[in-house]
Design brief:
Blueprint: E1 2-6, H1 11-24, E2 29-35, E3 40-47, H2 52-63
Antiparallel strand pairs: 1-3, 2-3
């Protein structure tokens, strides 16, 4: 199981991250919130095995510099 909270730095990264996860990992559970006025963006994602490994690899390859917890 993989579970992350990602904090994109801007709306473009937020949209790219959210769209990529939803499209490539349809079984992942995703909750996202944004506030363009405050430039605050958050994507919570969790994914069960066996898709957790590919999700982690995709995040590192595509959005490796996005802060996450």
């Amino acid at each position: 199981m993989a579970s992350f909270t990602l904090r994109p730095t801007d709306r473009r990264e937020f949209d790219s991250l959210l769209g990529g996860i939803v499209q490539q990992f349809p079984d992942a559970r995703v909750e996202a919130a944004h506030n363009d006025t405050w430039q605050s963006y958050r994507v919570d994602v969790s994914c069960a095995d066996p898709a957790a490994g590919p999700l982690i690899a995709w995040l590192l390859d595509t959005h490796g510099d996005c802060p996450r917890t």
